[in-house]
Amino acid sequence: MLRLPCLLLLLLLESCVQQKSENLNAVVEGNWFLLDMKPETPLYDSSYTKMEDSISRIYTHKMIRLEKGGAFTDVDSLFNRKGKWLVVDNNYLAIAKAGKGFELFKGSFKGYDPSDQLLELRHKINRGVGNDSVPVIWQFKKIDSENRWFHLFSDSSNSWRKRPLTPESEATLQQKLSMMLAYYADYFELVSEESDFFMTWRIPLPIKFYAHGVGLKSLEKAPGFEELFFDKADAEKALILLKNALRLQTQPYPKRDNYTLEYAAYLKILAHQLKGD
After folding, report:
1. What are phi and psi of 94, to 5 degrees?
2. Inter-axis angle of helices 232-248 and 259-275, to 10 degrees?
3. Quick one: which of 194, 196, 195, 219 has its CA closest to 207?
4. What tens-digit pLDDT sequence spans the chain (277 residues)?
5. What secondary structure, in 3-state letters, does 93-124 show?
6. Residue of 84, 90, 83, 122 whose CA lies nearest to 106
7. Torsion of CA 83, 159, 32, 103, to 10 degrees
8. Which of 7, 68, 221, 273 is 20 to 30 A off residue 82, Cα-Cα?
């Protein structure tokens, strides 16, 4: 007499597990902006602070795509290597073979708030001292198609990341620089809206960011910039074009509520100038 109720219970549990798996896949699929990392419990020792700085340089304020079917893309490397993602045991997000920081990443689900589309993952990172690890909470912001920053994840908005196979003309270099400047102007606005700090090293442009102003870096101090061009000679030509745009700029440096919005506004000015608007 107990067999039928037990069978019904097993079927119900299996249905719940399948539903949970489907829900988790639906949640994580899409575009994400990595906001911040915090220790699960407060830590103040120097070894953690040093580790936190190193880890933040890899992950914080990155943009990633978790595509339907399991393909994973780090937008910084959009046209290079793709990895894989998978929901494991109905509770973990696993990412593998996706480049620095995502060769083998596993985080357990801590929570998801659909009202602000904020996902939290619990992840353990090694301190580098024996087998000691620290549980941290990663915060991810979902950027869906209704969000005005959705285009930052598209292939077309990132076409300038594709390294050319031949040298480029001056006009093409100007267009490429204009696209890069416009892209990071929008990126800075996204950062300003979603975060209370910014990380300029995420940006490959050879630009120094100061309080209420910008300057230029040498190619040696902006290695990511040269990698976007056919060769060093083209990268140097692009740097000269950018230098001339700064030198010829006549509009006053914009004043905004914070530095990040000022950078965004000024990059837009330079983008329009290089575009010839």
Report:
1. -110, 135
2. 100
3. 219
4. 444 444 333 333 333 333 444 478 888 999 999 998 887 776 655 666 667 777 777 788 999 999 998 999 999 887 877 899 999 887 889 999 888 778 888 899 998 999 999 999 998 877 655 557 778 898 999 999 999 999 999 999 999 999 999 999 999 999 999 999 999 999 999 999 999 888 888 899 999 999 888 999 999 999 899 999 999 999 999 999 999 999 988 899 999 989 999 999 999 999 999 988 7
5. EEEECCCCCCCEEEEEEEEEECCCCEEEEEEE
6. 122
7. 20
8. 221
Residue type at position 117 = Q
CA distance 167 to 230: 6
* Structure token digits, residue 272: 């329009």
